[in-house]
């Protein structure tokens, strides 16, 4: 059952909720051109963050799967800006699709809800695992690099 409890599955569930919203009367107040442009920019930025992070983790030969033990602490590159660039990318993709699909702007409130869920369900567990594995090195990294941005 653990394989179902992965961040992409949660992102998918939130995206389905956003996609279905207009069918239940939660359509955008009006169709505005900037929403599509900003939305696609957010999706592209989110995907770029995810790809860069996965490439860096592969270079360091450590896992991207939240339930597995990491073999290295990646602190450079995109991980020097955010301790969780993949999750940040997920949040940007979600925000982007709220804007792209004709969903009420109120659905942007799902982004902090998603971030809260991911923090509680994955990040805190991962940080505990990283702290056990890397001790003071991880603590120093946490002091110099923010969790999200």
Give a concise summary.
Helix content is 62%, strand content 0%. It is an all-alpha fold and 149 residues long.
Instruction: Quote the average pLDDT.
Output: 93
- Domains, number: 1
Order of helices and strands: HHHH
Strand content of the residues, in percent? under 5%
Distance between the termini: 31 Å
How many E-type strands?
0
> Unreliable segments (pLDDT under 50, ≥5 consecutive)?
none
Helix tally equals: 4
Query: Structural class, from helix and strand content?
Result: mainly alpha
Main beta-sheet annotation: none
* Rough outline: elongated
Helix and strand arrangement:
Elements: H1 7-20, H2 33-59, H3 85-100, H4 110-144
Features:
single chain, about 150 residues, mainly alpha, 4 helices, about 0% strand
Explain what the structure shows:
- By secondary structure, this protein is mainly α.
- It has one domain (7-144).
- It contains four helices and no strands.
- The chain has helices at 7-20, 33-59, 85-100, 110-144.
- The protein is elongated, with a radius of gyration of 17 Å.
- The two termini are 31 Å apart.
- The model has no long low-confidence stretch (mean pLDDT 93).
């Amino acid at each position: 059952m653990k394989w179902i409890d992965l961040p992409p599955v949660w992102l998918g569930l939130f995206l389905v909720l956003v996609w279905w919203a207009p069918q239940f009367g939660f359509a955008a107040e009006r169709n505005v051109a900037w929403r599509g442009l900003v939305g696609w920019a957010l999706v592209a930025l989110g995907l770029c963050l995810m790809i860069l992070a996965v490439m860096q983790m592969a270079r360091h030969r450590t896992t991207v799967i939240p339930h597995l033990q990491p073999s290295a602490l990646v602190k450079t590159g995109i991980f020097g800006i955010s301790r969780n660039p993949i999750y940040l990318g997920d949040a940007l993709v979600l925000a982007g699709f709220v804007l792209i699909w004709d969903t009420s702007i109120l659905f942007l409130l799902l982004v902090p809800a998603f971030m809260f869920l991911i923090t509680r369900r994955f990040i805190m567990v991962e940080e505990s695992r990283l702290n056990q594995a890397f001790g003071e090195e991880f603590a120093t990294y946490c002091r110099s690099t923010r969790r999200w941005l």
